[in-house]
Structure prediction request, 476 residues.
Amino acid sequence: MARHDYSIRPEPRFEDGAFIPSAPLPIVLHDPDDWSLRDDIALMRALMRNAIETTSQTSRSQACVQGKLFGHEFFTVADPKLIQFIFVKNHTLLKMNDTRQRILKPLIRSGLISAEGEEWKRIRHLLTPMFTPRHIRTFSKGMKTTINREMPLTLKDGAEISLTTTMMNLTYEVLSDALFSGEIDDDKSVMISDFDSVLRTMGRPDPFDVLKFPDAIPRLTRIPGRRALHRIWTRVGQAIDKRKTKEKSGESFPTDFLKLLMEAGDETHGPLSSEEIQDQAVTFIGAGHETTSHGLTWMLYLLSQDKDARQRVEAEVDALDVENTPVDKWVDALPWTWACFEEAMRLFPPAPFVSRELTAPISYGDRDFKGGDNVLLNLWALHRHYDLWDNPDAFVPDRFFGKNRAKIDRFQYLPFGLGPRVCIGQRFAQQEAIIMAALLLRDYRFDYTGDEAPWPRMRITLQAENGMPMLVSRRG
Ligand code: HEM
Prediction:
């Protein structure tokens, strides 16, 4: 059978009135007896270049697919019941997958995303109260102020912009205001570009990780990002030190994440140490600004192509009384806008891979998993599964609109993950996304100007390879 041609990039198109964005074709895995080192190498190169390009046809059409890379077995699961069985009912038998940890640990040390076991339990317990609806509502006023302040600075009528950069700036501003009340703002653009360069260089698997070489052997692909990473850590550390000094001198602060982190603690371990606060702060920025930003960027691209859907969004946001509608009611007040955002995250899940390793055997039906097996929840495959979705590659916000939303199984749409390790920032992200979508689309229109269709590329998060060029027009 012919080998997969990774260079094919299908043109975006309309079919039966629905827009189908350009996206990698699923690979057809050929006969395992015919599988050779050449296939391993091609797969490994694709994995490093852009992991979603390795999504197979079978993982989009079957419940569970067994794969092999350089002799290491893994399972891609895409059946809602099986997903619930493994990731929720048997979560105590899961540990973080080695390759994932090798990518994340150097970036965020013991931040909540990479912490495990008792350490994870303690930190999750301490951080959960920071994300209650009450606190998230408190942040909403700041979110609106930040977005209203920043939008006119970057979005000029007739300007050609990189939407990726613009949205990253906006979501970074929102997060840094929520985290530090602006106290880390001095070199915002350096911080954002440092995060970008860290993800570009360090946010993907190195061949040595996949081959399970010992950590003592340096990963050459990661070296270029190290300096940027060091700068991020230093700046966050300095912001924390500055706050501690000010606090000692009796200054008071608004309720921001840093204040909440400094107040967090338990009887056994006392308060979080400066180092632990730093780990969580870097994690919040790392996990929180790119994801929301890419979700919104893909949404605006899809709306720039589907003009009818955009018109409906514009009518909805124009009708919203921005000043007097409480922010936690915006999702209900803007059901079509929200459906468009959910649909954008279905087609382009901002954090597409949830990977784990089983620590003990489990059986599901006639399928046996061994301890040590790697299980991958590939949200790209799940969200485009042929048996779970009609017209899976098309942008159809209607599936998330009104009564249709209830027809979607809880475990077939999982942009924020699931089980005990579900995204802790989900509410924050949702509130930020609806505020940003409403305020942006009330005042501006975005039209895609790229010569070629944007191509999704995975570097932990799923971004547009070309930075999403857009023409900005002021509305009204
Ligand atoms: C649209 C925006 C977002 C998406 C799609 C998203 C997605 C995810 C996913 C899929 C996970 C699970 C990862 C896994 O199980 O391996 C996760 C975990 C996490 N997210 Fe988010 N996230 C978003 C926004 C945020 C924000 C705004 C924050 C913080 C302010 C945040 C902080 C975290 C943290 C700390 C975890 C780790 C939770 C744990 O392991 O206990 N995320 N996120």
In short: The domain at 13-474 is CATH 1.10.630.10 (Cytochrome p450).
